[in-house]
Amino acid sequence: MKVAIIPARGGSKRIPRKNIKSFCGKPMIAWSIQAAQVSDCFDQVIVSTDDDEIAEVARACGADVPFKRPAELSDDYTGTIPVVAHAIDWMSTNITPVEHACCLYATAPFLQAEDLRRGFDVLEQSGADYAFSVTSYASPIQRAIRITADQRVEMFNPERFNTRSQDLEEAFHDAGQFYWGRATAWLAAKPLFSHDAVPVLLPSHRVQDIDTEEDWVRAELMFKVINQSRGK
Predict the structure, then answer these.
(1) Alpha-carbon span 64 to 58, nearest angstrom
(2) Which stretches are annotated as coiled coil (predicted)?
């Protein structure tokens, strides 16, 4: 069984009710559910939540909510892996054994079905435990600076001050959209950022963290432009 698992906790603080707030005409979580459904990758699309309103919205969008996430997995400090492992264990015990699970973030409106299909193909072809979305940094991280306590500037890597940008190694970061994994890896709590994972590269214009109201406005503008260019 291949299952999509969308964690959606009710306690978002920086943007209240972020998971179900309207984003370009739909509840935010609806975009992740829709991408999972259109991809045809999954036998079931489920939402793991501790929140009754989120559960109701998720069901209205076509996802299943077969259980209520326990309180001990719903605080500010619980990571993604134990939440996904709990869902896999519940499904395997109560429905049917899970072989592959893909964690989709509820706040990833730029997620596309073809990327999910490509991610599963990469996972299978590589033999790795995980395959997840990544994108490149816009600027060389070796030339990053910090602002000190006395409001001055210093480089993280001052030895790179005179190195040309084109001579620096390209760096990548987690795109925060999806994480394919073998059920055995999730259940064993294997780390995602390791040699056992392979990247699924996304263009940077389709990657946007949404943590503040400013992020939200920028993401809606980007979303509209991207969909206009795709003829949607």
Answers:
(1) 7
(2) none
Each residue of 169-199: pLDDT tens digit?
999 999 999 999 999 999 999 999 999 999 9
- Phi–psi pair at 229, nearest 5 degrees: -70, -25
Give the count of alpha carbons within 13 A of 14, CB side only. Answer: 9
**Residue for token pair 């939440």:** 83
- For residue 127, CA distances in Å to 40, 122, 124, 130, 136 come to 21, 8, 5, 9, 24
Question: How do beta strands 130-136 and 197-201 pair?
Answer: parallel
For residue 36, count CB atoms less than 10 angstroms from its CB and return exposed for 0-12, middle for 13-18, buried for 19 or more.
Answer: buried
Q: What is the DSSP track for 36-97?
A: HHHHT--SEEEEE-S-HHHHHHHHHTT-B--SPPPGGGSSTT--HHHHHHHHHHHHHHHT--
CA-wise closest residue to 23 among 108, 127, 144: 108
Q: 52-74, pLDDT tens digit by residue?
A: 999 999 999 999 999 999 999 99
The pTM score is 0.93
Q: What is the CA radius of gyration of the chain?
A: 19
Query: Which sign, positive or negative, has the C-alpha torsion 108, 114, 117, 123?
Result: negative
Give the domains, in start order, of the chain with CATH numbers.
2-134+173-229 (3.90.550.10)
